Amino acid sequence: MPLHFIKQDITKLECDAIVNATNNTLLGGGGVDGAIHAAAGGKLLEECKRLGGCDTGDAKITKGYNLPCKYVIHTVGPIWRGGFVGERALLESCYKKSLALAKEKGCETVAFPLISSGVYRYPKDKALSVAVETISGFLLDNEMTVYIVVFDKASYQISEELFDDVADYIDENYEDESSDSHLFYRNFSIRSEERRLDFIERLGENGEEHIQCELSLIDMLADIDDNFAVTLLKLIDLRGITDVECYKKANVSKQTWYKIMNEKDYKPSKNTVISFAIALELSLKETKHLLSTVGFALSKSSKFDIIIEYFLLNEEYNIFTINETLFKFDQPCLGV
Ligand code: ADP
User: Fold this and answer.
1) Mutation test of ligand 1: which of 7, 13, 32 has the most ligand atoms closer than 8 Å to its C-beta?
2) DSSP code, position 80
3) Distance CA 80, CA 86 (A)
4) What does 148-175 look like in DSSP terms, one character per residue?
5) pLDDT tens digits for 95-141?
6) Distance (Å, rounded) from C-alpha 194 to C-alpha 257?
7) Ligand 1 atom with least separation from CA of 29
8) Which of 151, 153, 156 to mutate to test the pocket of ligand 1 (most atoms within 8 A of CB)?
9) Tell me, which fold does domain 3-155 have in CATH?
10) How many Å lie between the centroid of ligand 1 and the Cα of residue 319?
């Protein structure tokens, strides 16, 4: 998966490079820096001493020594001073410079901690947005698997409003396998109902045309006896986006895309189908149709499915926001 969230000690990760959130001296410190030096052994410090320090926002690379990774990329994040002295640009630069170094060394897998979000006090939710936006921007033009490593999941935050909203939605809609599925529709949160009415009002004079368009997409999906790849290509054409745009938005790697296209009997997982539904910005109804063409359905007794429904109903198609939310609720992320 191109961008993935994991909860782990970064020093244990077997990937090509891990990123160290360090200070200007590069001579070790506390937090993740201390953990990386302790696990890598004294030779890392020796190499760091020869590098002559590092500017804030810049990055330098060393070998991984006793760590399971090949390289350590050392970057110096900004100290948070209220956000008024260019902290964001410097933090973006940390991610960009680190990714550029990783690319230069041919790394295929790179893991980042949440730079600046510890001792340097960058608010975690803001630090996370900068990480996700900068890394996903890079991934639009590059093939790499990037992990954002969240050490302390409790402090890892999607915005409180989004978290509360999704939590409410799960509470209102979660059902035991045995209960009546029709209840689901009666239990729409007030917010979703308001959005629905708002949507109908906004349709105005063009409403009919819009509804027509939605129906024709569903008709098309209902008729389908193509394999998944052909269905996908038809939908991509209908949406007027390119194949690359689509699989990037779906958080799917180029390799997986080729597999879908080349393997005649490829059977997608439910996760993959939903990832593409998000990338194609399908409505809830359209997503259900697409899922049904490959034998899947959304269930009210699955937290994962309810979270997906929440985002589809709210027309929020940013897969990274969705993945942050799934991660926060201990659910698997989208993309393969
Ligand atoms: P900074 O000085 O850039 O804020 P810190 O090391 O204090 O760097 O914190 C950066 C982030 O790394 C924090 O979110 C912290 O929880 C996290 N962190 C600390 N130790 C580890 C570890 N072993 N693996 C992954 N992340 C870690």
Assistant:
1) 32
2) P
3) 9
4) EE-S-GGG--S-HHHHHHHHHHHHHH--
5) 999 999 999 999 999 999 999 999 999 998 899 889 999 999 999 99
6) 38
7) 6
8) 151
9) Leucine Aminopeptidase, subunit E; domain 1 (3.40.220)
10) 25
